[in-house]
Amino acid sequence: MRTTTAAACRAAFLAMTVAALAGAQERLAAGAGSRVLRWGGDAEGGAPFVEADPRNPGALRGFDVEIAEMIAKGLGRTPRFVQVAWPQLEASVERGDFDIGLSGVEDRPELRARHSVTIPYYEFRELLSVRTADSARFRSLRDLAGRRVGTLASTLAYRLLLAEQARTGLVPVSYDDDVHPFTDLVAGRLDAVLLDDIISARSSRRIAGFVVQPAPVAASYYVGVLARADSALRDSVDAILLAAMRDGSLEESFRRWSVWNVTQRAHIERVLAAPEMALGAAPSAGSATLGGYLPALIRAAGITLLIACLSMALAVALGVAVAAGRVYGGGVVRTGLTWYVEVMRGTPVLLQLFVIYYGFAAVIRLPAFAAAVVGLGLNYAAYEAEIYRGALQAVPRAQLEAARTLGFSELQVLRFVRGPLAFRYALAPMTNDFIALLKDSSLVSVITVVELTKQTAIYATNVGSWVVPGMLCAAAYLAMSLPLARVARGLERRWHVS
Amino acid sequence: MTATLSIRGLRVARDGHDVIRDADLDVQPGEVCALMGASGAGKTTLLRVVAALEPFDAGVVTVAGVALHPGAVPPQSHLGSLRRNVALVFQAHALFEHLSATENVALALVHVHGWPEARAAARAHELLESLGVARRANALPRALSGGEAQRVAIARALATDPAVLLMDEPTASLDTARREGLSETVRSLADARRGVLIATHDTDFARACADRVAHLADGTIRER
Questions:
Q1: Which of A8, A136, B110, B134 could cysteine-pair with B128, CB 3.0–4.6 Å?
Q2: Residue A111 vs residues A58, A162, A231, A268, A287: alpha-carbon distances, Å
């Protein structure tokens, strides 16, 4: 269900703005009394929720797809799928990108407070997965005090882990996809994974080396989410879902996807007996307030700054070495370093982070923070190297010859004349790069580091709005970058080189 | 008297033709020699060959007992004695842009010749004082006038007390009054040990400061 792309998450601000125009167009096209039901989901989540049909990749399949079809049929409309990153489903439905979101959307009180929410159509349980060897000692969250437990960001499971962190010192590790928590568990980077029974069962079929503990940590429901103003449509959808529960078509669909169990039978019986009781039944793992999130945001801003500073230090040191090698080195050295620069600049930093953290895990298992610093440092070193190479070559030849006539060795010329001058020339682009790095550090959330943007996304999902979290996040980035730009401008003025 | 700079049979070819050919020139200690010629005649090339910044194709250049031979410029590590004894004042000064006047003068004394910083700074101050720019000791090159930069560049060149001082178009950026002042300064630079070779196309300046004038035209040197 909830495999999301980090890029989509980070592009939320932009997407919201750009999609406003597209959304308006869509609404015009759909019109009142439209014969189309636009339903939003995240096909990256895969089976059994929503996935591209392997036999016909242009079509979708999964139980959420079938539920959407049931609803559309009941409404006399044609279903049309709208791809949305899972964390953005709620914000997206509220702004009118589609009529209903169905992609393993978890029920919770805040969701009901902000949107129109259908009756719960599936009951899921949060289960702990642990390495096979640990199955006897890690049976519940209490057994995992001080241990690293992975899950998807912005989920009930993540909020449960945060609550446990405050109680026992358990360390929540957030992921943007639901595959790597399990591979990291098997690799020893995590001690447990907390995810719902559907994802846990799916992963245990694909990945060996762990077991799913049967005792549920918590339970909740999947629901459809609609815009707050769409309560009339929601009521129609509820009627269709109740009918599907009564006539067994919902059960058939769940059976087709092997997610039917006794829990669902009991759940459906409860809902059919008292549909009104099914509303507002969601468990809460704590509501989000600004006061509650502020310490986490400040800590995340600190992590962002630390990653940016350490990565930049590595990038500068390595960049200087690469630039010196490209300017002074022999043919083989120059060719090798040129390749380094081109490969690092020519491939996405996201890919490099994945390769360093996951790809090299069999050879060297770097902690996430170290992998983030190394990944960003190695990538930015290529850009720094080009800046320094240009700056070294921009030092006037007469300055170098003057130093040589005074008897300086080539190394001394570099140390006392060429290097200091080149550094002054490079200062402005370096400042630029550091500010870019500060923002690019948000990419490291893909390897489980919760930095400022990730923490903001978690906060925004929890409060159901990007306005306050987004403004706080932007203010924090500006608070970090503006003083730096000011210091750099001051240095440029002081070091002005003719 | 043994010439402090001796050029014999010098030939410098660039892009397939001779810039300088069969050139002979001596500069004696205590002598100021002006090398005159039109722009592009090869004056700067000749100074750069003597300063071991450019290779040459034939002949021998002997500076303060060190002989340079045709072929590639020797590596810096082989040029210690020559670097100590030959200084070049560049046409556009080439002062280190990030260092003050004092630091420009003292840098090589500290890092090449191993002087303690205090001693190097004192020597720098003494040279700047003697050239009348001590009050600009802490100024960066960009804050200096053309004349001041010229004097700081001379002070830097004199720091190691070289036997040969080469000056490339020293009047290029100076007005008439400063040119006269510079000719007096240049005269004072030649002493019992040091010879001065100035490349210039400024006839008045050459007359005012030089003991001897050599002309470089069509690649050859003629003395008058």
A1: B134
A2: 32, 19, 14, 21, 11
Select the CATH number that applies to the domain covering B33-53+78-210 from these four: 1.10.150.240, 3.30.450.20, 3.40.50.300, 3.30.420.40: 3.40.50.300
Query: pTM for the whole thing?
Result: 0.72
- The span from the CA of A285 to the CA of A159, in Å, is 6
Q: Looking at this protein, which amino acid is placed at residue A197?
A: D
- 3-state class (DSSP) for residue A325: helix
* Look-up of token digits 């924090």: A476
The tokens for A351 are: 């890919």
User: Closest residue of B to A405, CA-based?
Assistant: B83
**What is residue A108's DSSP assignment?**
-
Tell me the average pLDDT across B76-102: 91
Q: Which one has a higher pLDDT value, A291 or A286?
A: A291
B114-156 pLDDT per residue, tens: 999 999 999 999 999 988 899 999 999 999 988 899 899 999 9
Binning pLDDT at 50, 70 and 90, where does residue A155 land?
confident
Interface residue of A328, A405, A421 to substitute, partner B, most B CBs within 10 Å: A405
Contact between A68 and A39 (Cβ < 8 Å): yes
Tokens of A370: 């170290």
Domains and CATH numbers, chain A: 6-122+221-278 (3.40.190.10), 124-218 (3.40.190.10), 290-494 (1.10.3720.10)
Say if the Cβ atoms of B142 and A421 lie within 8 Å.
Answer: no
What 3-state class would DSSP assign to A83? Answer: strand
- Per CB-CB distance under 8 Å, the chain B contacts of A398 are 90, 92, 94
What is the CB neighbour count within 10 angstroms for residue A22? 11
Q: If you count them, how many residues does chain B have?
A: 224
Domain edges within chain B: 33-53+78-210
User: What does the pLDDT look like over A308-331, one tens digit per residue?
Assistant: 999 999 999 999 999 999 988 888
- Show residues of chain B in contact with A401, CB under 8 Å: 53, 90, 94
The pLDDT tens digits for A202-252 are 899 888 999 999 999 999 999 999 999 999 999 999 999 999 999 999 999
Chain B residue with the nearest C-alpha to that of A421: B98
Give chain B's contact residues with A (Cβ, < 8 Å).
Answer: 51, 53, 76-77, 79-80, 83-84, 86-88, 90, 92, 94-98, 107-108, 111-113, 141-142, 156, 160
Confidence of residue A160 (pLDDT cuts 50, 70, 90): very high
**DSSP per position, A226-253:** E-TT-HHHHHHHHHHHHHHHHHTHHHHH
